[in-house]
Amino acid sequence: MNILTLFVIIPVVTAFAIGFSKNMKQTRVVAAVGMGLQLLLSAYLVYAYLTERAAGNVAEMLFMYDALWFESLNIHYLVGVDGISVAMIGLTSIVVFAGIFASWEVEYLSREFFISLILLATGVYGFFISLDLFTMFLFYEVAVIPMYLLIGIWGSGPKEYSAMKLTLMLMGGSALLMVGLLGIYFYSAPDGAPLTWNLLEISKNTIPVEMQRFLFPFTFIGFGILGALFPFHTWSPDGHASAPTAVSMLHAGVLMKLGGYGAFRVAIFLMPDAAQEQAWIFLLLTATSVLYGAFGAIFQKDLKYINAYSSVSHCGLVLFAILMMNQTALNGAIIQMISHGLMTALFFALIGMIYGRTHTRMINEMGGLMKVMPFLSVVYVIAGLASLGLPGLSGFVAEMTIFVGAFQHTDAFHRTLTIAATASIVVTAVYILRVVGALLLGPIKNDHFNHLKDARWFERISTVTLVVAIAAIGMAPLWLSNMINVSLQPIVTKLSTATSTFVSLF
Amino acid sequence: MNIYDFLIMRHELVLVISALSLLIIDLALKPESKRHIIPIAVVLFALNAIIGYLPTPAGILFGGMYQSTPLVIMMKNVLNTGVLIILLQSYGWLTKEENKEKIAEFFILMFTTLIGMYFMLSAGDFLMFYLGLETASIPLAALAAYQHHRTKSAEAGIKFILSSAFSSGILLFGLSFIYGTTGSIMFSDVVFNISDAPLQVLAIIFFISGMAFKISLVPFHLWTADVYEGAPTNITSYFSVISKGAASFMLMLILFKVFSPVIHVWQDILYALSVATMVVGNLFALRQKNMKRFLAFSSIAQAGFILLGIMVGSQLGMTSVIYFILVYIFSNLGAFGVVSVIENRTGKLSMDDYNGLYHTNPKLTLLMMLAVFSLAGIPPVAGFFGKFFLFTAAASAGLYWLVFIAVLNATISLYYYLLVVKAMFINKNETPIEPFKSDMVTRAGLLLSAAGIFILGFWSQVYEWINNLSVGIF
Fold first, then answer.
1. Residues pairing with A62 in the sheet
2. Which of A318, A363, B278, B404 lies 20 to 30 Å from B211 when distance is taken between CA atoms?
3. A72 contacts in B (CB within 8 Å)?
4. Average per-residue pLDDT for chain A
């Protein structure tokens, strides 16, 4: 069997197996085993991918498998990966694995919880391996829907409102996306040739420019909504704040990356002309995302809201970098996706663990936690430092690459926006350090906090997995960025064929 | 013409024989053993459904009044599948004490309306079409009033017969224009003489309005909610899938077959109807608390989606419509099946009664969830594929803005479908519906619809099978 298909089959089988488990203990063991296997498989995939490349295989996509599905519409089950998708799959596996351990003590309907969580992961894996636009869209929606149940049933606060808002906004995004994808399909081949959903085939053809102008906004905004594009980001703070720990981790860590990934893999790759022409609108929007999210985070008191706004800012940076449309910036965008995925997952995991002990997420009600739970606090500091871009951790590599790439554009418009976006780093430092100070240092504000225990073994597994990954990328970013760089080549080449030029405001 | 030619109309013949023999068997049975008629009728119908799949030559009877083509046979088979599920799901309800006197009537009436629909689908001229339509409508009214001792049921029957008569009048008026301007009622003659002359455009408008009543498109939908609510639940499911499906098929056949030269006229009409139907159906569905009314309005919105495929006028459009209706039959029957099982057991019909259902009846809840997700068009269940192909068809004609409106409406519909999911999974309830087990036959019916919802999407051969038999504008 094709190795990529296994990425979908293992979660489905795990979910089935969970359906037969008798109690909470069995459930979580089955889930952990299944997702552990998945993590090993991802590690093997990275290894196999690198060996293939080292052996001189220069095909655009590796491990391809093609099966005809709906013949008359030319819909295939077509999978294949390049360096970018391999990296995203690795990210997904790490976050899901950590997520399982972060939700080790979910008691209420634990079977259903893990099944939904794993189904969500199935959608994400399927999305990253698909090369056929139809299957890609199918998996995209599969990933979105379990969110409703996960937030609605196991969430906290105004969970029903948040769940509904999130689901409807994301489905509204897929309404836009549907139009975009159908349009791409009907212009996927020159007149008379059979139409195709195959991403690689479509990229060889040029969609007529006037159609690109019509379809690009649909596709880009459709994906952008999932990537928290301003002003469609409002689902994100509410959704993340209400979601249970593992769901916040998965959602901010992985699901939002679907938006960024789709934006460049589909929207920019297939419609480079319109991308050049309309980039200025979206650059303004994403720069707003970056700054708005960062400033929004400063004024929040709830830990989860702080992190949710910070996600808006960081994911905005991903889209911002994608719109810069040069090799370095795109490379940075992908590293940023992975880096942000890992550290935001770590943040949400820690917030969940802290909340589970203190029963509050308000920073002004907490203080001095460093004294009572040193392990969690130190990890929190590491996550914070990664988030504000300390060298040696993943955040630095990502942001550095993005800004270097963005600065390669010499015109005033790009320069201004880049400088504005760079300013967000300072704001990030403000809200991260403020939280660290208020939360971890200073006197203990509540006597009850003195009796709190530090992290338990499953919480350590969850957090250490993520910390190791963050540090690994920070210390040795080269292999990752090489892996991505090679795969970016076709996209950059395609962008250079665009006949339209960038419309600058200045 | 020899006697074997009658085999061309085997669908109708077998049904007529079944209906008549049920009538006779009913006379012969003693009152206390009347319920044995249920297995007999179900078996007879299952036989009919199987015979439908046997290969037979296509052909023409009665000088072109009756035509049988592989396409029409397939449509009949699709409807048969739905009716079989309805019959299975009705078992629990029919065996109740209050119905024991009139079990045979249920089957005879149902078979008769089905005969009418079959003749309608096979019609080769407007006379046969109209006869079939009326044969289908009148027993339906009787079915709606099946529980005539209940005011609401009787009211549903009267409402349906009146609005049906009214719409038939409009339809006939349109047909008379067609006869007046073309001099023929044969489909094959009319198609050569139709143009966009004012009188003929008027005829098309009247014809579409008449059919719009049957499919309950906005603004001709006003009867729907009351009739759906008043009729017994299993009859409502028949209304919402079979009756609607047959009328949609017929509208599509006539538009493709007879009015194909003036596609630019009816495409605009259908565009407007489709947008109105989706929007109004959805907006009304948002606030419904009674499950039957809720499903009634949601099925109005679904009819709006069906028009997306019809107005394209291509093979792709026809395939997507038939496929969508097949999927819709399974999904809607899944939802109605659960509603009827719960109503029969507890008499509860309000959405609030469904609060916390998952904790007491997890299997029913899962089926209901699958069904509403399928209706909303969420993958991986079949509804996603059905909707996606409809949108593909519309996009193939360049109707991107219509697709956009439709997908937005699908998102709105997701809101109220999620309300059901929310009620069952999230809301708390002091007095939840007790856990219960249904009888084997009903469960088989529910299982069948669940299987259809699950399998149909992935099973691409079904789509290809439909596609091979579908045609574009004739």
1. A81
2. B404
3. 319, 463-464, 467
4. 87
Residue B403 counted as domain residue: yes
**DSSP 8-state class, residue B290:** B
> How far away is chain A from the Cα of B145, in angstroms, using its nearest Cα?
39
Confirm if B337 and B304 have CB atoms less than 8 A apart.
no
Q: According to the model, what pLDDT value does residue B435 have?
A: 83
Count Cβ atoms within 10 A of the Cβ of residue A443 and give its class: 0-12 exposed, 13-18 middle, 19 or more buried: exposed
Question: Is B2's pLDDT higher than 80?
Answer: no
Which pLDDT score is estimated for B327?
Answer: 93
The answer to whether residue B474 is domain-embedded is: no
Task: Quick: pLDDT tens for A23-49.
Answer: 888 888 888 899 999 999 999 999 998
Q: State the Cα–Cα distance between residues B330 and B81, nearest whole angstrom.
A: 9
Secondary structure letter of residue A411 according to DSSP: S
CA–CA dist A318, A432 (Å, integer): 20
Note whether A338 and A414 are within 8 A (CB): no
Which chain A residues are within 8 Å of B395, Cβ to Cβ? 179, 182-183, 185-186
pLDDT digits (tens, 9 = 90+) for A372-386: 888 888 888 888 888
Among chain A residues, the shortest Cα distance to B466 is held by A72
Question: What does the pLDDT look like over A97-114, one tens digit per residue?
Answer: 888 888 888 888 888 889
Would you call the peptide bond into A272 cis, given omega within 30 degrees of 0 as the criterion?
A: no
| C-alpha distances out from residue B451 to B78, B317, B361, B443, B448, Å | 15, 26, 19, 12, 5
Q: Considering only CA atoms, which of A36, A473, A95 is closest in space to residue A254?
A: A95
> How many separate domains does chain B show?
1
Give the domain range for residue B276: 3-469
Which pLDDT value is given to residue A506? 64
Between chain A and chain B, how many beta carbons pairs sit less than 8 Å apart?
82
Packing angle, helices B103-121 and B10-28, rounded to 10: 170
Is B415's CB within 8 Å of A168's CB? Answer: yes
**Euclidean distance between the first and final Cα of chain A, in Å?**
55
**Domain coordinates of chain A in residue numbers?**
3-496
Query: Is A69's CB within 8 Å of B460's CB?
Result: yes
pTM of the predicted protein model: 0.92
> Residue A444: what are its φ and ψ, rounded to 5°?
-75, 125
Half-sphere exposure of A190 (CA within 13 A, CB side): 3
Helices first, then strands: H and E counts in chain A = 22, 2
Rounded to whole angstroms, the Cα distance separating A260 from A336 reads 10
User: Comparing A259-268, B194-203, B208-217, B465-474, which segment has the lowest mean pLDDT?
Assistant: B465-474
Is the predicted pLDDT of residue B176 greater than 80, yes or no?
yes
